[in-house]
Design goal:
The chain is built from eleven helices and two strands; from the N terminus they run αααααααααααββ. The protein has 270 residues and is mainly α. It is elongated and about 85 Å long. This is Phosphatase PAP2 family protein.
Length: 270
């Protein structure tokens, strides 16, 4: 009888712990601390590169020719719209708030620290990749080809940061991170298609208006979209742990001494 009570107590304890730790992810303070530190450090280094970036000279500006641009991008050369730039900031801001809505989910809210840690890790990774690239690569934005634009803006170092779209990359990281985490916590939930569709649509909208604003060419947006989405998905995926599984089943047989036995078998896999 005492053995049965012990087994029942053990089962209740394991079941309770499983419910309290109902998360598909794991966090390692050493590995994740290094990762997060590298992301933040890389972002700071990239910002330094951007600040020290030089603009183009008048001779280089006069040498620019739309015909030198690939066909996939040429149509956007000369685009310039302040209103489109302002509109792009709306879905851009919404995308950052999207993952935070998941905290209204009780299971995710119970692991807020882990969730926010992964989110910050995702954003810092995207920020590091973008800022370092933008600081090292010189590529004129579409608006630089607008001959009616003020000369000081065309010559500024900001005009040489077309490759690649940081707005789209960050937006895609946030929305795809939210969709990935929601799906991992709710693998059998209905309507996941709409979650992923919204995750894809928001950064696409940002990209559309960034092109109309003359900030980026199509390939800049596509590359930013791909890198951002990949980061938003891969960071949670790399944190996933195998689901723990406790199985209890009746068993019977004959032991090595020839005696028959009956009992309960318990296995725990993780």
């Amino acid at each position: 009888m005492k053995k049965i009570l012990f087994i029942l107590t053990l089962l209740i304890t394991i079941s309770s712990n499983a419910q309290q730790n109902n998360t598909p992810y794991e966090w390692n303070w050493i590995k994740d601390g290094i990762w997060l530190g590298a992301g933040l450090g890389g972002s700071a280094y990239g910002l330094m590169l951007i600040q020290d970036k030089e603009g183009i000279t008048m001779a280089e500006l006069n040498a620019l020719d739309k015909n030198d641009i690939s066909r996939i991008n040429r149509w956007a050369a000369g685009y310039n719209s302040e209103s489109a730039s302002s509109i792009s900031d709306i879905p851009f801001a919404v995308s950052f708030a999207a993952p935070l809505v998941l905290l209204f989910n009780d299971d995710i809210n119970d692991h807020t620290g882990q969730f926010l840690g992964m989110y910050l890790e995702s954003l810092s990774t995207t920020a590091a990749l973008f800022s370092i690239t933008a600081g090292l690569v010189d590529k004129s934005r579409p608006y630089v080809y607008d001959e009616n634009l003020k000369m000081d803006r065309r010559l500024s170092n900001s005009g040489q940061r077309s490759f690649y779209s940081g707005h789209v990359a960050a937006s895609a990281t946030a929305t795809f991170f939210a969709a990935k985490v929601y799906s991992d916590y709710n693998p059998d939930a209905e309507g996941k298609f709409f979650i992923w569709a919204a995750a894809a649509a928001v950064p696409a909208t940002v990209g559309y208006f960034r092109i109309k604003a003359g900030q980026h060419f199509l390939t800049d947006v596509l590359i930013g979209y791909g890198l951002g989405a990949a980061t938003g998905i891969l960071v949670p995926e790399l944190h996933k742990t195998k689901d723990a599984s406790l199985r209890v089943s009746p068993t019977a047989g004959r032991n090595f001494s020839g005696d028959d036995y009956r009992g309960v078998a318990m296995s725990y896999t993780f």
